[in-house]
Amino acid sequence: MNLLPFVVAGLVIGSVYALSGVGVLVLYRTTGVLNFAHGAVGGMAALLVWQMVELRMQPPVAIALGVAAGAAIALLFGLVAGPFLARVDQLRKAIATLGLALALLGLMLFVWNDKARTIRLESSRISFDVAGARVNVTQLVCLGLALLVVVGTLLALRYTSTGTSMRALASDRELAAVVGTNVRLVENTAWAISGAVAGVSGILLADQTRLEPAFLTFLIIPELAAVVIGRFVSLWLTLVGGLAVGVGQSLVSAWPTVSAFSTAVPFVVATIVILVAARRRVVTVRVVRT
Amino acid sequence: MNRILRATAALGVGALVVTLSACVPESDPGTIQGAPSAAADDLKCGLGTGEQAAGEPIKVAAVATASGGVDFSSSPNSAKAYFDCVNDNGGINGRPIEYEFGDDALDPTKTAQLAAGYASDESVVALVGDATFVGCDVANVEYKKAGLYSITGVGVPQACFESSNIAPVNAGPRTSALAVLQYFERQGQADTFFAVGLNTRGNGDWAADGIEKYTAEAGIDLVGNVLSDPAESNYLPLVSQIKQAGPTSLVIVDPAPITASILAAAEQQDAKGDIQWACTASCYDAQFGEQIGDYWEGFVSNSELALVTADSKDANQWRAVMDEYADADAPRDTFSQAGFLAAKIFVDTLLPLDADTLDRETVSEAVLGVKGYESDLLCAPWYYGEADEHHANHATRTAGIEAGAYVELEGCQDVTDPDMAGILEREQSEGLLNK
Amino acid sequence: MSQVFLARADVRGALVGLVLGLALALGLPALPGVGAGLSLRTLTVCAIYALAAAGVGVLYGRLGLVSIMQIGLVAVGGWVTLRIYHATHLPFEVVMVLAALVTAVVGVLVGLPALRLSGLSLAIVTLMVAGALEVLVTYAGFPNGGDGFLGRASGGTLAAIMPRPALGQSDDDFFRYVGVAVVVVLALLRWLLMVRPGRTWAAIRQGEAGAVSLGVNTVAHRLFALAVTSAVTGVAGALLAASSGILDPASFKAQQSVLLFATVLIGGVFSLLGAVIGGLLFYGLPQLLSTVGVDGNLVFVVLGLGLVQAITTTQAGIAGQLGGLWRRLRQPRPRRPREVTA
């Protein structure tokens, strides 16, 4: 069997997982909130784009508005729940976003019925053959965008003032506040950026996979797997993780005997990484105990 | 923070302006393009007196899947529209029908619960226009205990067709898939055949089983019969399997959103080739052709009832009733026709009876006695009858996409299913096809 | 000794709960308006899900472990029940106990690698397990009298249905049956929380380092807690399977696990009353809303926002607030005269 089409498809989906993961990671490092609703925000953005295109809006305008809507939803949650969340531990912060995910999922299911929907980006119509695999421009955009966002985020964190504040918050929140960082402003920026990234990846995933609320909401699982592989710190490793999860999933699905379990790949990969990481931590505890 | 707030507000206002200025409503929602317009006679439902029924209400109910990811509520909604029309036209000899439906949220436990609820409410005389994706088996247990019968609008899993107290008006996925296969066979396009379905118990496997049995009997080379996971995200493997098998024709037995995703993946790989692509009635929906795009011109779909654009008495009445009594944005699809038809069968069955004696017992007896019911929405007469399986609708039509919309390719054709021998035999021996 | 034991406030509370629970379980079907059809069936399933909710609540409230996979474990319990029944036709009570044991083993096996984890990592892993279990359940389906290991009849053959237990044939009797089973299991759980293991769990929640320094084997205790809560969840699965005799993968989606977790947090994680409230919210609220004509999908919105609210402002949930109200009502007023005047 020619495996190249599977590798290509895996790389494409993986790069969007990674792209999405970067959004999760930036928010997590800045505010301490691990956003389980990231997939739901993306799903909402994608469905809004579909709705606007259906209402005869120009697709580019619709996409821009969809991304803006993603940013707005995340920002709104950050503005309303942020002050409360700042007071609770990381676990509770994450659980609160589960609530947001549920609410968005319910809203999407309520507004859009179960009829067939597709988002067909113009760039998906232009395609060409590469060694037996068919590649379209959207797929190239996915790969390029993931790379661009990783590099861009790294540069922004290093060279812009907001980026510096974000890094300050990530390393020590109290200290950052003491030295005069506007914590709320930085946090809200992180929410908006992560929402916009969720919107972009949601729209790309809807083009590449399925435009269905529950499906897009639970893509948070492979996206989180990418972040986990990045050890909640590294942008580059998140990119690698996303690609690995995507390619792994795609390759497993190429063999009929195991293809039914391809959706379980992110779970397996992430669990192994978490366990390996946890093992190291246990060692340090032992040192303390003896 | 103020900066961000202001930016958001500006963005919101901008979005609103662009949305308002960019929207050009193309057509009146709800009306079907290409369908004949309604005549005044179409709204003479039931007795057609034009007078409001004011007697003691007759309680009728339904169980339908409306939330949880699947929405079949168009069946009970159209049943309700028809009942409203009947109530405005003298009701059941003066008694209005009081109709309600429960949403099982795609949870069989809840289906059983709702079924038990209606079964224990003695004032509910029958169930009409049900449409559930799950749980016909558990519901039937409750109905059987209570002597309650259902004229179901849409049945999907096998159990809906093999129950003593449930009789669907539609044909179901298995019959629909076989209909597509046999259409291609008649067209000489089924030398090698490929079937795609969903790995769900009593549904996808049931349809796959039918295709396997029929191809074996008819000597068609079945080069693939694949069931995929409902949560699958990547249809590339499936597409490459199809590409490799290279069948002359193929049927997708999936819900419409999944079918659309599979088609998108196939388009991406430019895998259409010389294969005749088709799907079951689940994607016979006005929106579908436009969603999958012009690449799929000539795509074939089965239709379990008359096409939504058909010009015939009951089809016209269905459209008129929907326009008058249902929401403008309520779907005008096969399921809606099915609910309407179920309600019409029910009303036509009760009208000859004495309205004062109507209770569960008399209504059940009358419903069981329905046979040879003719409607231009159907291909063959519909019947109930006392039996452990009910599958009266096994003749369907075929449609194809032309310029983004479905047009009829072939009229009524009986569908052959190797497992239906018992039903066909009973039709003849009990004379179920004649009034 | 026993008198001292009985004098403890928590023991008295538990006994009051036990008596009230039994009274409700046995008396509710006789009440007019409740004793028929839909509402009774709904309450039956609510009671069953209260067990699953109790599993989540104990893990989170007593040990600080997040488990977003509980509905998956309910599915495991239901699967095992149907499998054992169709293979052996043993009485339901035996099948239920076996199912509880097997679910406990499965829960431990799944949780074993995650035992060293806590907090966020465990939440992520269990969410992923929920996703994986959904894949597995959809793939395997539920046994319905077919052949082979999966016991799944497919294709042309129809499903076989497991009969209800002999003591709970009618809806009324089945509610009493479920009610008594739920109360007994919850009572056992409550007892476990009051004696040594429960206190050790509390110590672990207070601070792992502290517990370790006291010589507590935290891993073993977490393992035990996981086994107990999984067994309780397995009982829920068994009762659910008995309720209609057949199960469908559509009832056990990952989003249901998230929803259950949300309702438990809204109900309150620090007491079993919270679990009962959680079960009511999880299964009763959607029914209630749908009877007043609210779209079923909006339940997600209500409970999702409720979860955010519970996390940010009311940690102890509804049960905690009820408890607070109760204490305030019993408190003699003169004790805080200033508050009254203010």
Automatic annotation (TrEMBL), chain A:
Location within or outside the cell: Cell membrane
Topology term for the membrane: Multi-pass membrane protein
MF GO annotations: transmembrane transporter activity
Pfam families with a match to the protein in the record: BPD_transp_2
UniProt cross-references to InterPro entries, sorted A to Z: ABC_transp_permease (IPR001851), BCAA_transport_permease (IPR052157)
Gene Ontology CC terms, in alphabetical order: plasma membrane
CDD domains in the record: TM_PBP1_LivH_like (cd06582)
Transmembrane segments: 28-50, 62-82, 94-112, 133-157, 214-237, 257-278
PANTHER family assigned to the protein according to its UniProt record, in alphabetical order: BRANCHED-CHAIN AMINO ACID TRANSPORT PERMEASE PROTEIN LIVH-RELATED, BRANCHED-CHAIN AMINO ACID TRANSPORT SYSTEM PERMEASE PROTEIN LIVH
Full protein name: Branched-chain amino acid ABC transporter permease
Organism: Promicromonospora soli
TrEMBL record, chain B:
The UniProt record lists the keyword Signal: yes
Annotated keywords: Signal
Pfam family, one: Peripla_BP_6
Entries under Gene3D superfamilies matching the protein: 3.40.50.2300
Region forming the signal peptide: 1-22
CDD domains reported for this sequence: PBP1_ABC_ligand_binding-like
PROSITE patterns referenced in this protein's UniProt entry, alphabetically: PROKAR_LIPOPROTEIN
Source taxon at top rank: Bacteria
Protein family membership: Belongs to the leucine-binding protein family.
Protein name: Branched-chain amino acid ABC transporter substrate-binding protein
Organism for this UniProt entry: Promicromonospora soli
From TrEMBL, chain C:
Keywords: Cell membrane, Membrane, Transmembrane, Transmembrane helix
UniProt source species: Promicromonospora soli
One CC-aspect GO term: plasma membrane
Molecular-function GO terms, alphabetical: branched-chain amino acid transmembrane transporter activity
Subcellular compartments: Cell membrane
Signal peptide: none
Keyword Chaperone: no
Classification via InterPro entries: ABC_transp_permease (IPR001851), LivM-like (IPR043428)
Topology relative to the membrane: Multi-pass membrane protein
Pfam families hit by this protein: BPD_transp_2
Transmembrane regions: 12-31, 38-59, 65-82, 94-114, 120-142, 174-193, 223-247, 259-285, 297-326
Protein name: Branched-chain amino acid ABC transporter permease
